[in-house]
Design a protein that fits this description.
Layout (H helix, E strand, L loop, with lengths): L13 H7 L21 H10 L3 E7 L13 E12 L7 E9 L7 E9 L4 E4 L2 H4 L2 E3 L6 H13 L1 H13 L4 H15 L9 H7 L12 H14 L3 E4 L2 E4 L6 H17 L3
Antiparallel strand pairs: 1-2, 2-3, 3-4, 4-5, 4-6, 7-8
Helix pairs in contact: 6-7, 6-8, 6-9, 8-9
Length: 270
Amino acid sequence: MMYTNDKENPALSLDELKEICPVIFAEQPSNDVSDKYTHIPTNRVVEDMMQLGWDPINAQQVKARKNATRGFQKHVVVFRNENLLIKGKDGDDSYVQLLLTNSHDGKNSFKFEAGIFRLVCSNGLVVKSTDMGSFKLRHMGYTFEELQTQLNEFVSNLDGVVEKMNKMVNQTISVDAAKKLAQRALQVRFNNENEKFDDELLTEMITPVRVEDEGDSLWKTFNVIQERIIEGDFQYKSGSKMRKARKIKNFQQDMKVNQQLWELAEEFVS
């Protein structure tokens, strides 16, 4: 599961990263890689990111299914730049984040994807890749300068995301439309576009759990639904049985569902 950092300053030290996600510091790659593979441990990129103002605040590694992949498996590091704060309406502020995924088995390059962390609810969103310029860096030929160039380009694309966020903030959504958004979000959550959910559950999904989320804007409604989808802890009917949704803990599923929910919310922007 993702590490929960309750410090006033959420930045993690390298020692803390090593404790919660040791695969970041792999000194050598898996034996399965080819002779042409260039091993760049993730911690080198982490240290470069820190020099460029991006602090690691979270990390997770997938559970290795085979002994041969243990210590080399896919992992994610979440970075935040304290200077990139998106000021929202009525104090609804958000930080821009970057999620770096990698592995040391030759199957992945360094992949960076954009995220938004909403302070009012400690809620993390992953933005559609085409909206914020996600990028990849190959292990072979990796340089600090290339990383710096890609980060500068990423920051230059932030205005487009802020514009879309503002549209969601300024657009109202009816209860019926909110329920349609919840219906489709649940279909994403359970990977079944034909599943129909009862009105009681849809009403629950769009009901705010905190005062700061009350209102009829698309932005707040989307965030209420997104949080419920990711956190789970609600009852739903599957066939003839009632089941309880669990929290999404696997970071790969979390990122995938979050991106799909962002794309879904964009469809409701008029």
